[in-house]
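sorry to bug you again but im stuck and you know this stuff better than me. below you get a single protein, a line of residues and a line of whole numbers that encode the local backbone shape. mainly i need to know what kind of three dimensional shape the backbone takes. anything you notice is useful, everything is just below:

***
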Amino acid sequence: MKLSQKIIRQLIKEEINEMCGDMQSIDMGIEHDDGDHEGSMAKRQMFKTAQYAADIFDMIEDGQEFPAWIQSKMTKIADYIGAVKHYLEYDEVMDVPGNRKEKKWSDADHDKQEKIAQGLAKDNPDMPKDEKMAIAGAQVNREKRKRNK
């Protein structure tokens, strides 16, 4: 599969926006303590990744061709970032212990999640319920973030 310059730019831009929003407003906000540092390490890695992606985005010229191995790497980057994002969204939605933040969902949010999941069940009857709820919860979270911007 050959990726056009336009598609590559769009993929990078979407991933940066989903991960970080406006690059100028990124606040590392890392708290230092003597405990486990996985969260701060992950934030540093994602910040560096976002910076690299922005740099690469600026380096790519319209119409530029890439070897297959570069196209493959860019596809993997998008897949990996998406997988991490969806994992974190799933934890947030499903009240998994150790979540990043306390839940701030109203009853209306839970009702909307259930309604979206029921719609998914009609279109995808074989999809597991937890997957439907995760997808529905992610949609509710996206809508909440859009409203709060």
